[in-house]
Design brief:
The structure holds two protein chains of two kinds. Chain A is mostly helical. Chain A has a single domain (about 55-320), classed as ABC transporter involved in vitamin B12 uptake, BtuC. Chain A is about 70% helix and about 5% strand. Chain A has 16 helices and four strands. A two-stranded antiparallel ribbon of chain A has the order 1-2. A two-stranded parallel sheet of chain A has the order 3-4. In chain A, helix 4 (about 70-85) packs across helix 13 (about 275-285), helix 5 (about 95-110) crosses helix 12 (about 240-265) and helix 8 packs across helix 12 (about 240-265). The longest helix of chain A has 27 residues, at about 240-265. Chain A is globular, with a radius of gyration of 23 Å. In chain A, about 45% of the residues are buried. Chain B is mainly alpha-helical. Chain B has helices at about 1-15, 20-40, 45, 50-60, 60-75, 85-100, 105-130, 135-150, 160-170, 195-210, 215-225, 225-230, 235-260, 270-280, 295-315, 320-364, and strands spanning about 155-160, 170-180, 185-190, 265. In chain B, strand 2 and strand 3 form a beta hairpin. The termini of chain B are far apart. Classes of the chains: A mainly alpha, B mainly alpha. Chains A and B meet through helix 7, helix 13, helix 15 and helix 16 of A and helix 8, helix 14 and helix 16 of B.
Amino acid sequence: MPNNNVQPPKASLWARLTRHQIVIPIAALLLLTIFNLIADPSFFNITLSDNSNGDPVLGGNLITIIDNGSELAILAIGMTLVTAASGGQDISVGAAIAISGSALLRVLCGGERTVDTFKNPLILAFLIACLVSMAFGAFNGVLVAFFKIQPMVATLILFTAGRNIACWINNSELPVVNDERLGYFGNYIPGIPIPTPFLIAVACFIITFLIMKFTNISLYVQSVGINEKSSRLNGLNPELIKLMTYVLLGLCVAVAALIKVGRISQINYSVIAKDIEMDAILAVALGGNALGGGKFSIASSVLGAYVIQFLTTTLYKFEVNAAALPAFKAVVVILLVVMSAPTVREKFSRLGRKLKKSKTAEAGNS
Amino acid sequence: MSNVNSSVSAVKKTRKRMTDTNLLTTITVTVFVVMYVCAILFLKEGFLKPQTMLNLISTNAYLIILACGMSLVMITGGIDISVGGVTALVAMSCAVYLDMHDGNVYISMLIAIGIGLAFGLVQGFLIAYLKIQPFIVTLAGMFFARGMTTIVHTNPFNVSNKDFVELKDTRIIIPLLGSTTKKGKFIPATIEIGVIVALVIVLLLFCLLKWTKLGRSFYAVGGNKQSALMLGINVQRTTFISYVICGLLAGIGGFVYFMHVGSGSPSHATGAEMNAIASSIIGGTMLTGGVGNIIGTLFGVLTLALIQNIVASLGLDQPWWTGITIAAMLCIFLVIQSIIISRRKKADMKAAAAQSNKEAAPAS
């Protein structure tokens, strides 16, 4: 939009701010915060107490939110890139977490059912888990980029098979690791009162932010998402970029799997990360990203992920049954999406303009 | 797979301009027949009995109905992933109404249709008129339906309403078909009522898509919204109607499912939406819109069910095999589809180029 200096700079800043997509998750966050403040101000209390191991840890609803929302935030980073580049969503992330977690435990346990110490070094296990989930990400990516299958359909394959493959990796056994070092990744490192998942999520976000800042990846992904043909004419390789986003999502999945497994030091194939793909997609949508590809903002998506967790925790606090939770989530999501729908927004802005016009007309008459 | 490919190429040669829709349907039907013949040849005992085939249809009658609605929405270029949730909600609501309020069976049918219609209307309105992404809307619809199911009732239970149990146990005997036991007693082949419902719906939708103006406009909207608009089709209304029909069918499918299982549970029909999408895709419907066929969808459901049956009777009893085979099959079908479509596009482009050359030649 050309900026002709008629508008005062203050208004243009405000306009720019309201036009930025991060407004949507921030507005949602504010709404939730105000709601909680009115309903029960003690929601925001943060306590410092000793956990069962005698280490001081932070507690309270806010800490629960940043703790439990971390996997979602990490997934949202990858999902945003995939959405932006390929104009579709990966619905197999939950299943991929099961596979990756299963591979992690398989290496850690070395094929045994219950172990007290790691059979193989944790770093090796994590690297293998990364490789496995990146390979599955590449499988999705090849289907999407080279065979031109719609992302949702292509990932439907892994969605159907994923948990079964995870089961197969460990021969249907449910290995348990009793080494407390694995728990560090899902809970707390002794001496640090902040939950580790949040630290990992922050680290992931900073790394992604730096990569986006100092490389052209962000621009490339965006241009492929907006117009594949013209980005090819400009010398980009759209297939390769799409493939890359899926592999990156695979990496995010591996990190999320490490946290998920670290939380309970074991795995349940049919339950682990259930429905997380839906939450991740919601986070991307809530972040105001175009679900059809193109413009994206990773910060908005990450914020969106924490907003979803905020909502979940708020609902839990009102003693909503865990199984009934989706119904409330759905209502909130629909409200948010309806409010941000272009047609509705246009109507609102038209209404606003009409009001303004009538006001100026009145001013002119008087 | 070579068998299929050769037959496809044969079909291609004999009829040069076969539409994408028909080609993909032909592939599905061929695969189904080949698989069934192989099953009869190699796994003789069970598959020769007509009852095996009929059981296949009886168990999956609800999936056929759901997949029909899904195909319709997919033809217009959308998607509806709330159907599984609606199925569970319908089953639970009807179960609670019949069992705890001593309800009437016919009114419970109305409840089922009402729930389905309500979902279809709301989702259709949001998608068609407010232009919100169908995936997000129906995702929320699925969440809402699943959540409501637990709000209606938390624990699974069986329905013991007399009229309903009578309806549930009704079997329709098919004349002339059946099998003889070792003692020489003839057992006639039977199907459930749901199958009749499913087949009627398949027939109705087939006619709708093939011969009515509305059916044509579904394809037009899915193929290219812009040109559909220029042809004078009301794109918004067409999209809206497709979602309403899909919701309605989800309601009916939910009742058929309820008649099959006879109980209400929050975990009913888990993953039904994905199975419905998978069978639509196997049946030759493309998510990009504009391509699809109800008969193909019917065979898609049957193929999916058959492969599960075959895996089970091959003795691969570990639970993970079913999921992996379905996924592998889905993968193969998707790749075949994608290759065919891209080849076709190239051929079309070549033909167009040749034609324009021909036209240009006399002019120069």
